[in-house]
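User: two proteins, same treatment. go.

Assistant:
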Amino acid sequence: MRCLLLCSFLAACAADPMTTTDDGATDDGNATDDGAADDSPTDDSTTDDGLPEESRATIPTPTGTCPTLVDGEVTFAPAGMPPRRVVLSLDASRPAAGPLVLYWHATGSLPREAAYSLASSAAGFKTAGGVIAAPFSDATAGQFEWFIVNGSSKQDDFLLADEIVACLVEAGRVDPQQVHSMGMSAGALQTTALSFLRSNYVASVVTYSGGMPDGFAPTMQRPDNKFAALIVDGGATDNVFGVDFQAASERYAQTLTTDGHFTARCDHGNGHEIPRDAAPSVIAFFAANPFGAWPSPYAATGLPASFPTYCE
């Protein structure tokens, strides 16, 4: 039991079919006739927005019929996987494109964890035009909610993320440059994996008690995307199922920093818990770090004084 989460996570990464081919394209089974991965952006990401091509996110195209977007539970049906329920939090009266937060919940939790984690900041984010998308996990994934955390090479959770992003951008509800991800525990490990394997469109991430277990070394889908990461853990007592999340968080920070990404570390010291007092700072962090905003504005100024004192 003590090794289950760590060993499973490493096994998933070793078995992950999303390896990088010799030509640098991601081999996820969605190949064009010439064998290269089809990661062409939608029309939304090729508009004349004044951004150079290298600073634009590459948004996937929907593979199924997109659901009607409402504030509440909807079902996405990407090709190649069973339909999956997702809880959307959005203000239908504000149809302009805003930021998106993909929220991945912890083991034993539910999508409503997103509202708990972001506290009162969730309502303000939604009112300002933001969208929060919190998937339900697949009941067949295993003990730890998300396939990759259980040692599975199954790509359903990543295909679901692609479909959520594709449908929301296509509908004009999400700015392609403002796709962010966060999660707690198993959801934070899922966010870590997403930051590597979907760096084509991930602008910035926040992990609560996640990071990189020793030996986890996935291939970065888009190496030139130097996204920002706010990496949070609970200190020396943040250790469950035999995983030292403080060490895993530090390893994630060191890996990203070495590769030229901006990282900030927060140690709230309360063990394996969600630091709800960090919610306003999380929203501010996402807003300050859209896709292509390199280097992060915080690289020069440091974190704002409004961030928790346990962040650096």
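Protein 2:
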Amino acid sequence: MSKTITPYHNEQGTKKQQVADMFNNISKTYDFLNHFLSLGIDIIWRKKAINELKNDRPKLILDVATGTGDFAFEALSILKPDKIIGVDISQGMLDIAKQKIVKRNLQGKFEVKLGDSEKLPFEAGGFDAVTVAYGVRNFENLELGMADIQRVLKPGGKAVILEFSKPKVFPVKQLYKLYFNYITPGIGKLFSKDSRAYTYLPESVAAFPDGKDFTGVMDKVGFKHTKCRPLAFGICSIYTGVK
């Protein structure tokens, strides 16, 4: 069993509480830093992940760890579902998502609520699709979280998960480590009042069971036809599975 990586080493509180605190702390600079640190490539990765659902034409989508809602907004424009519900444990992030919803006049299409990704506040079998972008590595109990995602999906419904992974090829692996371990925390410190959040990022990615290990977790909780699709030499991966 791997050690649980938490955002704040010296603080008490579960990983879940610490992750909520961390995202509340960085919510105001989160969008800017996200695009800045990924050089805007995160937008391309999001589109690729959403396109995994194009043929499924889901009507009702749940976006877990929705944050400030960027992934859900992108899914709305590409997939044109009837509705997306976003759930997150950080009220600070959801407050920004709500401002964006009003600004874009999407109140009837996108709704957000505070909730725990491992105990989703929804009945079983309600959603055509569940998406998670850069959220599963923050789960306190990965297996529990994935089992709950499987629970709320309709039979035949699909989960699409976008997450950082660890590149294995030279020199991408070495450049990635340098960027993630040194440059990212440095820039995070400059722009964010919570520099620790950007040190937690590489630590949480390093501890995350990516590739076959993650599809193994999906298989274990009952997903079928699980696949892993690495992007950008394995910096990021898209995982899919069907209930």
